[in-house]
Design a protein that fits this description.
This protein has 99 residues and is mainly alpha-helical. It has 4 helices and no strands.
């Protein structure tokens, strides 16, 4: 029995991988052209929205940091309010996940 296993030719790992990949790709349900375009528009809108949001955050925090460096009390107070708001938001979000 052991001699028979040794004489059998083993399948190349690369060929085995390619066959399995081809078999899996046959199972995939590809979206239609209209579905693909709708999903592309959603991705572009979310990407643009996040870029604007992160740009606004960068602008705001740069503004606050510039004020702190200049030792302007208004900016220091604003930074404190922002830190407290972030802490309160984190606590409220944490409580909401426990329910």
């Amino acid at each position: 029995m052991a001699g028979q296993e040794e004489t059998e030719k083993k399948e190349n790992a690369l060929v085995h991988y390619l066959r399995d990949t081809r078999a899996e790709l046959r199972k995939v349900r590809w979206p239609s052209r209209s579905e693909a375009w709708s999903l592309t528009k959603i991705v572009l809108a979310v990407t643009l929205g996040m870029a604007v949001f992160l740009g606004a955050l960068d602008l705001f925090f740069g503004w606050v940091l510039r004020g702190i460096i200049d030792q302007n009390f208004l900016y220091i107070a604003l930074a404190g309010v922002v830190v407290i708001a972030i802490a309160v938001s984190a606590v409220l979000i944490g409580r909401g996940e426990e329910v």
